[in-house]
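Possible regression after last week's pipeline update?

I re-ran a chain I had predicted before the update to compare outputs. Posting the input and the new output here so someone can diff against the archived version. Not blocking, just want to make sure nothing changed silently.
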Amino acid sequence: MLTAIAKEYGNGRLLFIGSTDLDTQQPVIWNVGAIAASGHPRALDTIRRLLLASAAIPAAFPPMMFDVTVDGKAYQEMDVDGGAFVQTFLYPASVTVQRRTRMANDQPVPAAAAYIIRNGRLDPEWATVQRRTLDIAGRAISTMIAASGYNDILHIYNTTQKDSVDFNLAYIGPNFNMDLPAPFDPS
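New output (post-update):
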């Protein structure tokens, strides 16, 4: 799989995965293709660890620690689920600069398609909220999270339209109604 990702990166395809650096309260966008194509002996381990970090829901799963060096100083970056900062993202802004410049100068712009995977619903989920402080607070937080995810998709759609990028979205639809027996149930 590492070789296939590296090959597609060489063909101009981009695969990004996001996590959140809790120390800096910033999103981290990992260029998985560049890591795979780097030939670094720890590339496979790094990709496995960043996949774990990107799914490490705070307080439910442990964060992943990454050794980094900034301005010659070594420290550890603590990364968790990218949803702590943004639930869904398209690509870094730097990717669009070159594309928009070419479009503005009437230069040829290669066809591009974005495939967005939203591991969640986009429709509201009705529930009776008990008139107690903790229940109200919990529902308000889940509402903010749901609205944030929905707004992320709208932002991405608008960006693809500005950049002339084909938009494709997969998400959990309103017809999915399976009740989970427990949180994080493998089945």
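Follow-up from reviewer: compared with the archived run. The beta strands are 16-21, 26-31, 64-70, 73-81, 113-121, 166-172. Marking as no regression found.
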